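[step 3/7] fold_predict: job queued, chain A
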Amino acid sequence: MMDRYAVIGNPIAHSKSPRIHAAFAAAEQQALHYEALLAPLDGFVVTVDTFRQQDGRGLNVTVPFKLEAFDYARQHGTLTARAELAGAVNTLRFDGVQVLGDNTDGVGLVHDLQHNLACPLSGKRVLLLGAGGAARGALLPLWQAQPSALWIANRTADKAVQLARLLNQPAVEGCGYPDLDGQRFDVVINASSSSLGAETLPLPAGLFAPDALAYDMMYADTPTAFLQQARSLGASRIADGLGMLLEQAAEAFLLWRGVRPDTAPVRSLLRPTPLWMN
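[step 4/7] structure written:
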């Protein structure tokens, strides 16, 4: 029998993960089966337990179950440091009775920025928009990339301040959007949910430094509302979260199989033309 993996969520039919991991497995000659699991909103634990009883080896976890996955791993096994700080789990690995919970979102984001987009973060001024789960998951990997400053801005300033305090570093600062006036950043990352509702954010003019990159964690076939706004404010480059999706998947594959697949062929399969050239 082939090793069994899956992505679990609700809804789940739209997920690109089965296609991504099938391509990874073929490229790396790994014998595995990957599927999509639709769990009832009140049935995450039962679905995971059943999957494990049927010799499931690992799960990717998507909305709305990342917090429940965190609790599951904490109760039944261990958490990585980045999952601990994120307070959420997007990858579960099962080795017999052992459970490991990880969060690969932030490291996937950083890998996409630095390797795929040729945007090194060391010494750069980085701004993270939003203070929810997506921002929290990105926080530690972004700081480990050694930016000169890491700011977190949110409509509710207190949430951004509390998030910044998790790192307890003088170069990490939380603020409200009005506090961004007069500040300039080399990399601006949208971790808020604004693009889901096609909302614009209260961003000041002059926010983007020369040659700045605007990055939206959301992905779509056309530039998101945030990326359109960033262009109007002078961002030199834009990118959405498709690369992050692929890189976090590659990190999960590495955790499960011990090999990190090349994401470039799958990126070309999913999007032949880069977003910033559309």
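[step 5/7] annotate
The first helix runs from residue 17 to 28.
The chain is about 35% helix and 25% strand.
exit 0
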